[in-house]
Amino acid sequence: MFKGVYTALVTPFTENGEIDFPALDKLIEFQIAAGVNGLVLLGTTAETSALSFDEQKQILEFAIKEIDGRVDVIIGVGSNNTEKSYDAARHFLQYKPDGFLVVTPYYNKPNMSGLIEHYKKIAELKTPIILYHIPGRTGLKLSVNNLERLITEVPLIKAIKESDYDIQHITEAAVKLKGKVHLLCGNDDLFLQFLSLKATGLITAAGNVFAKHFVKMYKGEDAFDVFANIYPYLAACYLETNPTCVKYMLSRMGLCNAKVRLPLGPIADETKAKIDELLKDLTTK
Q1: Active-site residue 176, yes or no?
Q2: 73 φ, ψ to 5°?
Q3: Among 69, 58, 72, which Cα is nearest to 24's?
Q4: Surface-to-core class of residue 204, CB atoms within 10 Å of its CB (0-12 exposed, 13-18 middle, 19+ buried)
Q5: Options 6, 86, 161, 247, the catalytic residue
Q6: Nearest CA among 49, 60, 67, 68 for reference residue 93
Q7: Burial tier of 160 (Cβ tally within 10 Å: 0-12, 13-18, 19+)
Q8: Catalytic: which of 6, 86, 119, 132?
Q9: Which of 86, 146, 179, 182 could form a disulfide with 200 if both were Cys (CB 3.0 to 4.6 A apart)?
Q10: Which 3-state string (H, E, C) describes the chain?
């Protein structure tokens, strides 16, 4: 169901902080031209927590129209408030997404009984769910046994976006959940390792810039050579909190402004200098 490269799209802003719809159009076309299988709208990379609900709707209405069925659409609806997540998902059903991306609730660290009910509530909407497991941001790490319990009790969980850096956990999940759920890589720099474990795809922030490279890797076209060539740039995407560096790279490519919303701020001049040097090297290869 969820196979291939999915870019978690940034939200471009104008210099005065409004949504930049012409830039959003350029970003969408850039991704589709690169051959991605789908786009994730309103994910973490989109700075969704800094968007009003009206802005979220405006982005979806614009993006869905521009995408026009050319690639899959996944909509992020996760929060640490079950009713808020459910209400957002219920409202966004009108856009006919291929799936909802639902992060494990952050900060309040729910126990298993609560977590199961959280996902069951969103599953009432009869739309496939991608469970987003990212302990580094949520403070909640699930064992593979608990992941298995969740996908058993909530059959509409069709995929897991795994963003843990514990390779033993990732390996165990790939083996134990084989044939039960799609495994999607959530760490750009581990994509090849995930593919070797038969992951079905990738949800990527760095794909905003390097989508065509990830598509080549997914297709097995000189995968390691492609990965090795872009590895320094992937690392640079995360010199500061995502999506600050990704947006700066996009600005240098003329695709959108580097503007982010508080509580995120502009990247340091030192970081800009490092990225500028890398991008200069990229253009000469």
Answers
A1: no
A2: -130, 125
A3: 58
A4: buried
A5: 161
A6: 60
A7: buried
A8: 132
A9: 182
A10: CCCEEEEECCCCECCCCCECHHHHHHHHHHHHHHCCCEEEECCHHHCHHHCCHHHHHHHHHHHHHHHCCCCEEEEECCCCCHHHHHHHHHHHHHHCCCEEEEECCCCCCCCHHHHHHHHHHHHCCCCCEEEEECHHHHCCCCCHHHHHHHHHHCCCEEEEEECCCCHHHHHHHHHHCCCCCEEEECCHHHHHHHHHCCCCEEEECCHHHHHHHHHHHHCCCCHHHHHHHHHHHHHHCCCCCCCHHHHHHHHHCCCCCCCCCCCCCCCCHHHHHHHHHHHHHHHCC
Q: What is the mean pLDDT of each successive set of 10 residues along the chain, which is 285 residues long?
A: 96 97 98 98 97 97 97 96 97 97 94 97 98 94 97 98 96 96 97 97 98 96 94 96 97 96 97 93 55
